[in-house]
Task: structure prediction
Amino acid sequence: MNHMKQYNTRAIMASLLICGFVGMFSETALNIAISNLMDVFQISPATAQWLTTGFLLTLGILMPMTGLLLQWLTTRQLFIVSLASSIVGTLIAALALNFEMLMTARVLQAAGMGLLIPLMFNTILVVYPPEKRGAAMGFVGLVIMFAPATGPTVAGLLIEYLSWHYIFWLSLPFLIIGMLVGLKYLENVTEVTRPRIDPLSIILSTIGFGGVVFGFSKAGEGDGGWTSMIVLSSIIIGLIALVLFTLRQMLMRDPMMNMRVFKYPMFIVGLLLVLSCMMIILSSMIILPLYLQNGMKLSAFATGLMLLPGSALNGILSPRMGSLFDKYGPKWLVIPGLVIVAAMLWFFSSISVASSIAFIVALHIGLMVGISMVWMPAQTNGLNQLPPELYPHGTAVMNTLQQVAGAIGTAIAISILTSGMEKYLHSSPVPSESVEVAKAMMFGSQNVFMFTMIVSLIGLAMAFFIRRVIVKHAAMNSMH
Result:
């Protein structure tokens, strides 16, 4: 029955993609504004960092529950809740008079995004037949990559000529349009089964994922770093809670997060490849702007412009890679993609203050093209292996672990950068001179790129195990 139904896939996708784009845009646009906000609100970098950490933390806590929510609420209900949260959050942010107001707004925005992204993946798995999923997932890739790419550039312009409030005033009308389109065309595509809610699972997952994301984010802030008691205790408590959470899920009849997804080898390979991409992207997305602004002394707007071509190309190529995946399977995209990524990161690990802007832009383009060859094909191939009843769980596992990997990657990158800089300045005769600080920045950044290159080589080793999944359960679906 499920198989015969025709959906207005274009309108459904349009509303989900508009909302997803705006959500991702405001997530990254604020990063450029952070130094500006520190002046406006008179807050320290560690406090300002919370605008990003708080966002990630909310996602890390909410994402594990989405598998459950997708079975409790209809598609439309979940869409309305997610957008109401985003719209209210964006409005509060646009009106924010102080840090507390902005922080509240960020949590509401993150809650909206945390519900929308899994809803987007799950809807695609339901409304598109397997042979068209790659291209549809590619469009999600376009949003997930293109929004963070344009965020910093547009934000740089808005901050220069208007004020940071306009980042949110600009997003608001698009969210409202997306919501109206969704209300008109989005249908309920998932079955509401209302599994039993287990309070203990929710508590364990909140402490577990929340603790790990919080601990790593805190470590990345650089005060006391990895040795601080808060960092160590929250990571350890988080890990213990995660072990208990996992054990509990394995013993339950209707688990909140079904660990049976790990019985499917291609799901595991796809997941590991997506996580390594996430770590590479987030580490380089943090280190490159820092390096360009502090090492090469470029303005925020110039930095945004330099990173635009690569990120835009990544977004534009995403649907194309999806179609190639539908045609040829994952292997011929993923392996060459990781070879390109590793090569670009190897070149990145030797950039210096003398490197030309064109060279850095070219490397960034290469890196982003390589990532677009890996990310969506690996993700789609992994999810394709799951039977339909595990789709909500598969997307919940993938999205949650991506947030965790993102927090971990960011934290490791920042701490490698800081320790590299300290080490360099420690041996420098004139550590306070700006030339030396720029060189220290270069030395620290090179170490981070070495670390991401190692991650990409581990990914490459895993990529040799990827096999194309032939979806058998589509035919069975049309029977009942």
